[in-house]
């Protein structure tokens, strides 16, 4: 059975403190996809989201960020920036895996929902295949896809529904995901 994993489509990554160039556009496309025939055809048994939810993530935040390993403050727990983009239908999610309270946590597989990890939750729902989309291609999507493969899931990346921080790095990340065994759709 297949699940859809929507990575970090949160305000700060779309039009907030760490906005990606195409964040708002991709959020609208994912929102449309959530109510599309294509989504019905894909027959997802579960639809989940991941969300950055930082409290004190250490060196992940910096006043002088390099935008590779350190970042301006973003998705601080309890703020508007952590909320899903308005175009996203959060009612559709079977679970939201929050991550990064005290760490960088790029991968959704570092997240938890009701004390359950994403991998355990998916396995207990008999999910073997994942489709992944969201933000950012070169960071949290990349890490989530690579961890999904390591956890033994069959992973496809919905390349029309991802936004990068840096477009060249985004393309490199997609190539890396494909080399690791992901299918690029
Ligand atoms: Zn973060």
Automatic annotation (TrEMBL):
The keyword Metal-binding applies. Pathway: Cofactor biosynthesis; nicotinate biosynthesis; nicotinate from nicotinamide: step 1/1. It is an enzyme of class 3 (hydrolase). Its EC number is 3.5.1.19. One of its GO terms (biological process) is pyridine nucleotide biosynthetic process. Gene3D superfamilies: Isochorismatase-like. Pfam families: Isochorismatase. Residues 3-184 form the Isochorismatase-like domain. The keyword ATP-binding does not apply. GO terms for molecular function: metal ion binding; nicotinamidase activity. Keywords: Hydrolase, Metal-binding, Pyridine nucleotide biosynthesis. Belongs to the isochorismatase family. This is nicotinamidase.
């Amino acid at each position: 059975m297949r699940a859809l994993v929507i990575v970090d489509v949160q305000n700060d990554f779309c039009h907030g403190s760490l906005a990606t160039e195409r964040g708002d556009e991709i959020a609208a496309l994912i929102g449309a996809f959530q109510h599309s025939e294509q989504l019905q055809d894909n027959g997802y048994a579960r639809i989940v989201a991941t969300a950055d939810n930082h409290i004190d993530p250490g060196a992940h935040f910096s006043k002088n960020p390099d935008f590779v390993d350190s970042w301006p403050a973003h998705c601080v727990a309890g703020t508007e920036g952590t909320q899903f983009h308005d175009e996203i239908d959060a009612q559709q999610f079977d679970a939201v895996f929050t991550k990064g309270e005290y760490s960088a946590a790029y991968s959704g597989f570092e997240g938890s929902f009701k004390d359950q990890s994403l991998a355990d939750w998916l396995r207990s729902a008999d999910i073997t295949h994942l489709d992944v989309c969201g933000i950012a291609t070169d960071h949290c999507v990349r890490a989530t896809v690579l961890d999904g493969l390591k956890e033994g899931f069959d992973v496809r990346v919905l390349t029309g529904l991802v936004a990068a921080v840096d477009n060249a790095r985004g393309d490199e990340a997609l190539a890396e995901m494909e080399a690791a065994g992901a299918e690029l759709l």
